Amino acid sequence: MAGSLRHNARRLARKCFRPAVWRSEQYAPRAIALPARYSRARPPANLPSFGIVTPVLNQASFVRATIDSVSAQAYPELSYIVQDGGSTDGTVEILQSYGSALNWSSLPDAGQGDAINRGFSQVTGDIMAWLNGDDLLLPGTLAYVARYFDAHPEIDLVYGHRIYIDIEGQETGRGVLPAHDSRAIYFADFVPQETLFWRRRVWEALAPLEVSLHCAMD
Q1: Which residue has the higher pLDDT, 49 or 178?
Q2: Which domains does the chain have, with CATH numbers?
C-alpha cells in the first residue's frame, strides 16, 4: 500500500509540475516575426569562442537551412562541424556544395550520440552546443549567448525558449519556459536541447555522451 501511495504521489507531482509548453502546433503556420534587436546583437569585447556540432543522417530536406542559420551568425570565433553518419539521400552532396566554407565529415557511426562525440573531438571553443540537422539558430543567438556568459562567469549552462516551425520554416507555435527551478527539473525535463549552451569545463567533466542511448543520450 505504501509503495502504491508513493507511486501515485510521484505521478501527481509530475502532472502538477510539468509545464504545458510542448504543443508543437498551437496555431496556423505563419512567418516568424522577430524583434529588430535580434539582428543587431553584438558579441562582447571579451570574445568567447564557440564550438558547435551538427549531427545529421539523411536530412537533405533541412540541413541547408540549419547550416545557413549558423553561418549567418557571422560570429568571428566559431568552430563548427557537420558530422554526417553516411547519408544516402543527397545530404552529402549538399555538404559538398559549401566547398571550403564548411567543415564536415561523413562516416558510418553508432548513432546520434556517437556522431556528436566525434564532432566535439574536432572542434574547439569556450562555449559548446550541438544543433540537430533540422533545427535553426535565430539571428543574433551566438552574440546574445556570448554576452550572457561574459557577464556571468559563475554560470555554466544557459537555455531559452523555443519556436516550433514546420517543413516550410513557418512558425506553428512557441515553447515558453518557466523560470529555471533546479528542483522542478527532477519532475519535468523542460530544457530544449537546441537552445542549450554550456562551458567547455562542463563537457570535460561529464563527457562523452552515452552512445547506447539513441534518443536520451543527453
Answers
A1: 49
A2: 2-19+46-206 (3.90.550.10)
What pTM does this model have? 0.87
**CA atoms of 87 and 56, how far apart (whole Å):** 8
Q: How far is CA 108 from CA 44, 56, 80, 121, in A?
A: 39, 11, 20, 16
- 125-150 confidence digits (pLDDT tens): 999 999 999 999 999 999 999 999 99
Q: What is the spatial distance between Cα 208 and Cα 217, in angstroms, rounded to a whole number?
A: 10
Determine the Cα–Cα distance for residues 203 and 201; give it in Å rounded to an integer: 5
Provide the sign of the torsion angle of the four alpha carbons 196, 202, 206, 208, taken in this order.
positive
Angle at 175 between CA 171 and CA 178, to 5 degrees: 155
Alpha-carbon span 150 to 168, nearest angstrom: 35
- As a whole number, the mean pLDDT across the chain is 90
Q: How far is CA 87 from CA 21, 25, 74, 104, 149, in A?
A: 33, 29, 28, 13, 35
C-alpha cell read off for 176: 515558453
Cis peptide before 208 (omega within 30 of 0): yes
Distance between CA atoms of 7 and 180, rounded to whole angstroms? 25
Q: Is 140 helix (H, G, I), strand (E, B) or coil?
A: coil
